[in-house]
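Standup notes
- HV: blocked on the assembly model, inputs below
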Amino acid sequence: MPSLNCPVCGASVEVPNDALPGELFECGDCGAQLEYFMDEKNTASLKVAEEVAEDWGQ
Amino acid sequence: MNAVEIHRETAVSTLVQLLEVYTPPGEERRLERTWFRVCSDLGYRDFWRDEVGNYFAAAGSGGRTVMLVSHVDTVPGELRVRVSEGKVYGRGAVDAKGPLSAMLLAGSAAASKLKNIRLIVAGLVDEEGNGYGAKKLVEEGLEADAIIIGEPTGTTGIALSYRGSLSIKVRAQARGGHASAPYIAESALEKILHLWKLVEEHYGGKRYEEVTSALTTLHAGDWVSRIPDKAEGSINIRFPHPYSSKEILSKLEEFVKIADCQIEVIDVTEPVVTNVNNLAARALQRAMLRLGLKPRIVKKTGTSDMNTLVAVTPNIVACGPGDSTLAHTSAEAVEIKDIMTAAQIYVEFVREMDSAQQSL
C-alpha cells in the first residue's frame, strides 16, 4: 500500500494499491479530503478535493 | 467498462407504480400489494413486509449482507403522478421513491451475478415522521456489513454526514388578564416568546457547522382583548457533530427556568458523521468512477435514516438520484435518466462489494 503526502499538512496518507484516479481519501492527521490524482507522467499524488457541498435533507 | 443495461420502460413503470400509491407516514400499508407486484415483476423471489410495516426484497445467499435502504413514506400532500419531458412527477418522486425505485432496479439487475453477498433492498416506514421503521430495525438487532441510504443527493453526491435533530413541545401557563392593563397581567404567549428569544440568541446559527433553531408552531389566545393564560408551541433544533442532544437539552432546561415554561421532548435524532474511507463510501466512489462519473462529497443539513442505521455498521453512506431542493415541494419531479444512472451506480456498488476480498 503506497504512501503519499497530504498536500495540506504533509502527513503520510496510505492509498490502496487498487486506487482509481478520482478516488477520495481523508488525511488521518488533518482530516482534509484528498483526491487521488495521476499526472500525464503517470505519477500518483494527492490533491485537495473540491469543496464539500451542503445539501438539504429531512 | 460495460455498464449493466437498465430499461427505461421498466424504470418508469416501477417508479410510477410506487408513486401512484399515496403513502404519508402511518399509511404505508397501502403500498403492500403494489410492493409485492413490483418485486415479482422485477424477478425477485424473496420479498416481504415485517411486523412494523417495513418492506424488503432480497437476492443472493452469500455470507455478507449488503443493504440498499430507502423509505416508502412521503411527506403529506398528494400530487398528480405524470410522466412528461423525461421526468416523473409525483409526491415522493425525489424523496424517496425515486431512489427506492433505482435500488429495486439495481437489485433485480445484479441478482444473478451475486456470489458472496446477500443483497437486501428495503423501503422503510416513517422516515418523514420519527424514523420508527429504522429505529425498530436497530432495536431488533439488524446485522449488515454495508448500507447505502437512498436519499436524493443529485445522483453522484455521497453524503457522509447528517445533522442531528431535536424536536420539543413548549407549554406555558400564566394569570392572563385584560389587554387594557397589560402591566398587571401575565401572558403565557410572552413566556413562550421569551423562551424562543433565548433559544434563538443561543442557537441562531446560519451555517451547517452551527446549531440552528426554528419556531415551528405557536398557538395562543382566543380574543383580541384577552391576554392568553395558556400557550403552546414547537421548536426544532438542528445540530452537527460533535454536538449532542444531551448538552443542548441541558441548556434548554436553563432557558425554560428563566422563561417559566415547560418542555416535552418529542423526538431526538443524534448527528452522524462517517468517513470517506469507509468501505461503502469507497465502493460507491469506485462504482461511479468506473461508470465515468465524478463522485462529490456532500453534507446534509437535515437528518435521515442514516442517523439511526449507523448503529448497525460504520460502512454507511447516503446517495441517490434527484434534486433535493425539490423534495417536500409541490414541484417534486425526477429525471428518468437520473433514475437509470443511479440504478447503474448501485449495481456497480453491489458488484464491488460482492468481489471485495477484504473482510468487512
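- HV (later): unblocked. The two ends of chain B are 25 Å apart (CA to CA). The first strand of chain B starts at residue 46 and ends at 49.
- Next: hand off to the docking folks.
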